[in-house]
Amino acid sequence: MSEKTWAVVDDYIVASLFDSDPVLDAVLAANHDQGLPAIDVSAAQGKLLSLLVRIRGAKNVLEIGTLGGYSTIWMARELPADGRIVTLELDQHHAKVARSNFERAGVSARIDLRVGPALQSLAALGAENAGPFDLIFIDADKPNNPHYLSWAMRLSLPGTVIICDNVIRDGAVLNEDGRDANVEGARAAFSFIGGEKHLDGTAIQTVGAKGYDGFAIAIVE
Fold this sequence. Notes:
The protein contains 8 helices and 7 strands, in the order H-H-H-E-H-E-H-E-H-E-H-E-H-E-E.
């Protein structure tokens, strides 16, 4: 099957299962108009994140990698009135677009957007005793996956759900040559989850509008 077919099936999933959402459509349009890379999760993946927030009963969520806030909004909508999501973004321009999108979606009050290198922001969260978080979504620069997962463990509690995006990379995760830093980051995520005795996890291969990739999903024990 081709990527074109995968994308059409994604369209079918959205048309069959989701109500139309002009706000999220406007968010993606704003991201495009502002020159942000089109690397947001798909609508089906965003819905999965929102369902995981509901399934976990999450009140405190941490997102590493905001971009224009599309995935952030999916998750923030499912938080209780007193819930919050801390989301970390390196790029000032991306953060500005995200803030506008949060206003558009009416979720700004639930979101704490922090700008700067994620590892510095994570260290600050640790110093603030900001955790524990109920759900942590990692979708930032892939070479730092093991560092992000290490911080996720520090900022979690038993039952925390950790999701790491882009771990299959068109199947290139099988490559052991070390030439692609992003692939090495994906492999490092598998090594971390598989080697951490307090994590129980799996990975799901995905195809769709975003091509062939996947999520690693784990729970803290």
